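Subject: Protein record for review, amino acid sequence with backbone structure tokens
Why sent: The fold of this protein is of interest and is recorded here as tokens.
Enclosed: The protein record, placed directly beneath this head.
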Amino acid sequence: MSTLTTFSQKAPNRVFVAILFGALAGVFYAALIPLVLSSIQSEDVALVSENNVQTLWIFDIINYKLAAVYLAACVLILLMRSASEIMLVRVATEISQSLRKKFYQKISKAPLVAIEKIGSAKLIGSINIDVPRIVSGGMVLPALLISMVTLIGMLGFLVFLNFDVFRLVILSISIGVICFQIPMYFGRKILHRSREAYDELQHSIKGLIYGAKELKLDGKKRETFFKKSLLEREDKILNYNKKAQTILKATMCFGDLICFFVIGAFSFIFVNYYSVSQTELVGVIMALIYVIGPVGVILATIPTVTVASISYRKLNNLINDIPSENAKDLDLNNIPLWNKLSFENIIYQYSSSDDESGFKVGPLSFEIEKGKVTFVVGGNGSGKSTLSKLLTLHYKPISGKIYFDSQEVTEENINNFRFCIGAIYSDYYLFDELHMELDDELSAKARQYLSMLNLSHKVEIKDGYFTTLDLSDGQRKRLALLVSLLENKELYLLDEWAADQDPEFKEIFYRKILKELKAQGKAIVVISHDNAYFDCADNIITMDNGSINVAKTSPQSLLNRQNTFVSESLDKIKII
């Protein structure tokens, strides 16, 4: 069983002891019925014999030695079953954390393009759905094990009582198992489809949350989205779960009655063909009634274990689908010094699901120098976002080389070079915590930036956390800029940072902050459409359909370039 294998790999000694205790608890469970039968089958003389009666407080106890053994067995069952379940529950909680940590590590070391291809909905869904199901499957193992050992013990007791009865029971159980497994096979298939449908639903929920603005604008679109993306998928999951649970519950009820069918066959048919003593009759019926409980536990845990196995395969397949960058870990003692970033014939191409080639960027050859501001301009779909991810070393080019001075970027040093880069992307994520040590100097600088960006009345920093992130889009982007400035990187990439800002903060950004970063000797790359501030740039990279044009700039040349661009655009409009 894959779930048990996972538990064994995590804590082999504890799992072994838990299984051992569970098995012993099952043995003692199985021994209770023979002990009771031994007591009630004693001769009447023995029952009333003074040597066989012991008074404890106000109670007279017959067969007190046997009663002591019975009590000891009950205590041992309590202790061993408790120990077994507690051990596995503790291992289960550790496994839950271990699986999540493994998942975190796998995602953190995966190439960005792989994470984007898999999608956040599938990744989050696996953490929130599959991991708890796997752990739940492991936590029922003690009860399953104890019940199985008890069942085996009772079957052994039946061999001792009457071998013909044992054969009848084994035949009945075999037929029952076959009849049980057939519908269970279809139930597992349906549960697997249900799990696949959950991934589709996760994508729809993501669209409901992140596409709220677009859905509110168009009532018809919202209605179609609700009907096709949400409600239809919810109905699909509901139907799958209804079918699966109907099959499982009906099958379990059938399983519960197997023992009663056997009891009926024994009491009404078997006794007519085989000689059975009164003692054997009582023993067999008690044993068969006694195993109803363990059989019920086994049947009840099968759906949980089945779901756990499906989730285990799902999680493992997803983990195996996430590749690794194979990049060497960050070495803070070996952060490189550099003055110039160079692209030499860099080409990047997106993979496509069909036979057609994906969008291609390049070949790109240019330089980004420290102490200079480079603007990247271009229309939508020109390749600016791809260029930004190449610049920040998130995308690995299919050809060409990237240099920091004379040092080529390789798997050995890529994380060291990434450490030199700070970025605010158009789809940036703002953490609620500053992941850095705040000394007095940094704290003072943070307060200065909060005041400059007009955020001091909204946000404070306490114990390394922002007091709130409940801000407007423009304010959140200003806060992201504050974080990036505090990180004090060597290369800054700012993708359309000023797009959500009021004129006041655009002025601060272009005229003050960029000027300060330039004075500090930083390399600054700004993706922008604010032609009024093109005079702040030293160089401009114009992108068009994946290709670039790099030019030195001056305020006047930039203005002339912009006027030409506007004139050509107006001429095209007139022609159309």
